[in-house]
Amino acid sequence: MFENKPDDSPVYLATASHDQTIRLWQARTGRCYFSFRYPDLHVNRLELTPEKGKLVAACNPHIRLFDLRSYNPHIPVRNFVSHTKNVMAVGFQYTGHMMYSGSEDGSVKIWDLRVRECQREFRSVSPVNTVVLHPNQTELISGDQNGNIRVWDLRADLCSCELVPEVGTPIRSLTVMWDGTMVVAANDRGTCYVWRSLCERQTMTEFEPLHKLQAHNSHILKCLLSPGNKYLATASSDKTVKIWNLDGFKLEKVLTGHERWVWDCDFSMDGEYLVTASSDTTARLWSMRAGKEEMVYQAHRKATVCCTLLRD
After folding, report:
1. Which of 26, 41, 188, 200 lies 20 to 30 Å from 208 when distance is taken between CA atoms?
2. How far apart are CA 307 and CA 299, in angstroms?
3. Which tens digits make up the pLDDT trace of 24-39?
């Protein structure tokens, strides 16, 4: 596994669970080498910061930043306090100076990591389930519980575009192609809506409908475009992850093995592997070429709800 990675650049996996623990694993061996627990730690999303070695956890209702290279990696080096309900999404601008977040309190917030405070706030009215940053680094795209997709222009400080593919059907996940030319939204009815961005990297204010994909017959909990712009992965409450070829949106593979809902997934940097997290308490590593399970990470005692691959 990960045979194309040099030995001096190890790959790690971070997972979080309803058992209130975050665990760090050696991706190659499946060994859990560190874990930490907080009685009040309810993690909804994990993300690696652009500055390697730091992990951010979107919790209820705060955001916590951990330095995995410190002597006490289990102690947050920063706590970001402003949201009042579950934080469902978190991510970073490529410089690492700006962090964004979305919450069930109906807000999308912008944070300056150098001053620790919330700098700006956009109101979505209904609970926000997902937020992604456009590759142009100047626009955020959010999806909410009422089925709204909104584009927030960070330069103009306003909502520049709104899409409602299915009124009242929650948007659960969003993903954007690395060059900004494609946006995919997944909802609670198992449907993926795909748009082409007409102006590519310059703006996201215009969308051209490209495809409607009935990927599953139940909730899609995560959708994710692969780094090589070849595949779309959809993780579902039907216990499967499906891999779709973007050339015609044909079903390429169905990853089966999880016994309960699959909440999250993350591609390796080369797109050769996919890691998944499930209510069956496990995380699993899959070979994209073979479409088979390569490793099971098992130590959590309750649902594993989020995962992310880390490079040292």
Report:
1. 188
2. 14
3. 999 999 999 999 988 7
pLDDT at 206: 79
Strands 207-214 and 45-48: unpaired
The amino acid at residue 287 is S
Residue entry with tokens 């899409």: 163
Give the whole-angstrom CA distance, residue 66 versus residue 70. Answer: 9
SS3 115: coil
Nearest by Cα to 188 from 208, 209, 162, 215: 215
CA 71-75-78 angle, 5° bins: 115
Angle at 100 between CA 39 and CA 177, to 5 degrees: 115
Residues of the chain with pLDDT under 50: 1-8, 200-201, 203-204
Q: Are strands 273-278 and 262-267 parallel, antiparallel or unpaired?
A: antiparallel
pLDDT score recorded for residue 114: 82
Q: What are phi and psi of 249, to 5 degrees?
A: 55, 45
Coil, strand or helix at 234 = strand
pLDDT of 189 reads 98
pLDDT for 39? 75
Q: How far is residue 45's CA from residue 59's CA, in Å, rounded to a whole number? A: 7
Residue 136 in tokens: 């142009």
What number of H helices and E strands is found in the chain? Answer: 0, 28
Q: What is the pLDDT of residue 9?
A: 52
Amino acid type, 229? N
